[in-house]
Amino acid sequence: MSDNRYCVIMAGGSANHFWPVSRKSQPKQFLPADLEGKSYLRKTYERLSGIIPTENILVITLARYAALVREMIPEIPEGNILEEPYGRNTAPCIAYSTYKIIQRCPEAVIINTPADHIIDDEAAFRKDIINLLDNAAMHPALMTLGIVPTEPETSYGYIQVTGKRMGTNPVKVKTFVEKPDPELAEVFCKSGEFFWNSGIYAWKATIIMEEMKKYTPEVVSMFQGWERSLGTPEEAAFLEKAYSDCPKISIDYGVMEKTDRSWLYPGNFGWGDMDTWEAIQEHCGRKDKDGNCFLADKVMADSDSGTLLMSTLRGKKKLYAIKGLKDFIVIDTEDALLICPKDDRQYKDFLSGLGMPEYEEFR
User: Fold this and answer.
1) If you average pLDDT over residues 82-109, what whole number do you get?
2) CA pair distance 45, 8, nearest whole angstrom
């Protein structure tokens, strides 16, 4: 195992994608997968700890979630939890974490990954991650892990490569594409030139900073003087100023869509981005013949299809009786009950009402 390999787990998201299970105080990356067992963050750490030395795994999160990270991953050193004062998307997150790693190991090769993915075949995932890192170590490239699409999914971004995929060889990236409509997604899948964008990247620390200086100088300039401040008692004050003035910008938009060093490594291990209720249901492992997924102690159901029922009230001998629901979500927690069509747009439109002052205690 090479000691110059580092991993940054990005666990700073605070959006309530899965309200009422997810709240501002505990976003989705800290929730147990299917509300049972280990959290998404913990599972992400364990998948990577067999590839990267524990002392080389860093988690970057918002300062208010640092205690949750320590609780869920007690193994990693205290200094490996990086605390962002504000959320500014992935480009500032990657700049900060890369500078911290350069202080330790200027020749580092880094994998950056979100904390909220579901992986079906972990052995295949680890093999692909090792190959991704090997390619990043051998070439002055910005490698992204693309997922071979299994269906015309509309909730993921896509990456187009130059020509059809050929086995597991890296392919030059042609363009990044936002979430498509169903018709376009169908075309993407049939073409053989498009992959789902996993948001997992690998590169040499020096290469990503070269490209960030070129394409996101507005971010890099906020970290001027990092050599004298990071790793010292002045780090928190330095970050407060840097993040206060830093623009919100993603690494995709800021760098990956503009650089000529963007390459894709094809991954095929059963992947899901936990960003919608549909994704939760797809990977819950409990779907019945009618496509229902019931995550509760006792359920009496009749004539339901495509419905997700989830309860956090385990062990309370509560019976859920539902009839005639099609493509609905029913989510029951201690202080809130949600019953809503599963369609992501309808769900998000409906939950925009949570912004009203009278619902503040429930956000």
Assistant:
1) 97
2) 10
- Pairing of the two strands 5-10 and 109-114: parallel
Nearest partner of 27 among 112, 93, 116, judged by Cα = 116
Give CA angle at 158 (82, 18), nearest 5°: 55
Note the pLDDT tens digit of each residue in 212-267: 999 999 999 999 999 999 999 999 999 999 999 999 999 999 999 999 999 999 99
Taking Cα atoms as reference points, which of 289, 250, 281, 271 lies closest to residue 344? 281
Percentage, residues of the chain above pLDDT 90: 73
Q: Retrieve residue 294's tokens.
A: 């019931």
Handedness of CA 298, 303, 304, 306 (dihedral sign): positive
Cα dihedral value 83, 89, 94, 100, nearest 10: -20
Amino acid, single-letter form, for residue 112: N
Burial of 286: CB neighbours in 10 Å, binned 0-12, 13-18, 19+: exposed
Show the tokens assigned to 228.
């004298």
